[in-house]
Amino acid sequence: TAMAETDDRIAGLEVGADDYLVKPFEPRELVLRIQAILRRTAQNTAKDYTVSFGDYRFDMHMGRLEKQGEVISLTSSELQLLGALAEKASKPVTRSELAEAIGVGDNERNVDVQITRLRKKIEPDSSKPIYIQTLRGSGYILYVNR
User: Rounded to the nearest 5 degrees, what angle is found at the Cα of 78, between the Cα atoms of 73 and 83?
Assistant: First the structure.
């Protein structure tokens, strides 16, 4: 901006600007300021997309599930399913929402099959799940570490 007075800079920052650069400016300074903003944004975004449950850590942004640093291989349907559950961590997700997330339309039975497969990969005992639990008549819930 050409508005270089101290009051102008303060007003810009008070209304929510991340930064304020006055003319004339050096192009290199502009690039460095943009890079700094992107670094801050990336750090905040990475934190928002990680969900932990038990020894597992799921990075929704990367579509990656790890157990104590070791990557757990998941099919694309399992990743989509886990992602839908993780987005609403510790909150109920209906079968119809999960069916939509994995692209099976209204075939909610397919959701149950995929949940069973996912449980076999992450639950200590898939017959007694502790992370992905069934909410009778409604859907499923992923319990995360608090």
Answer: 105
How far apart (Å, rounded) are the C-alpha atoms in residues 43 and 46? Answer: 5
**Which amino acid appears at position 46 of this protein?**
A
Residues paired with 54 in a beta bridge = none
CA–CA gap between residue 31 and residue 10 (Å, rounded): 22
Residues 54-90 have pLDDT tens digits of 999 999 888 899 999 899 999 999 999 999 999 999 9
Transcribe the chain into DSSP letters: ----SHHHHHHHHHTT-S---PSS--HHHHHHHHHHHHHHHHHHHHHHTEEEETTEEEETTTTEEEETTEEEP--HHHHHHHHHHHHTTTS-EEHHHHHHHHT-TT-HHHHHHHHHHHHHHH-SSTTS-SSEEEETTTEEEE----
**Which of 144, 22, 26, 18 lies closest to 89 in space, CA to CA?**
144
Q: How many CB atoms lie within 10 A of CB 82?
A: 28
For 18-35, give one letter per residue: b (16+ CB within 10 A) or e.
Answer: eeeeeeeeeeeeeeeeee
